[in-house]
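agent> Task received from the user: take the single chain below, predict its 3D structure, and emit structure tokens. No templates, no multimer pairing.
agent> Plan: (1) validate residues, (2) run structure prediction, (3) serialize to tokens, (4) report one or two observations.
agent> Step 1 OK, no nonstandard residues flagged.
tool_call: predict_structure(input=
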Amino acid sequence: MEIESILCPSCGTAVESTSHIFLKCNIVKELFHKITSWWDANYMELSSYEDWIEWLLNLRLSPKHKSMLEGISYTMWWTIWNFRNMNIFGSKLQSKASLFEEIVSRSFYWCKFRCEVLSQRDMA
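)
tool_result: status=success, residues=124
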């Protein structure tokens, strides 16, 4: 398998690793900062999944809001992974500027659908 570069395809400034792609990349840091601002939550630079779990557990939010923020974080990581793959394999490149809006949009639909499913389950 021939690899063009070992640098992160999203930012091109550091060696690609799962830790870098999902937590340490400047693009992810910027997105995570925007998400914490959106939710009026304390921003913290994360270096591991365990750091993220600890950050989430220590937030002063209701369990319902923590669950929503957890889903938004997973949506962010999925969006980043998709952005990375489009940079490597896709013919159409996505704008970095549109990533936050995509996360907000996908999160809204995820929360809306999840709430509808939970409500229907409660009614049954």
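agent> Step 4: summary for the user.
The helical segments are 18-24, 26-38, 49-58, 63-89, 99-123.
agent> Done.
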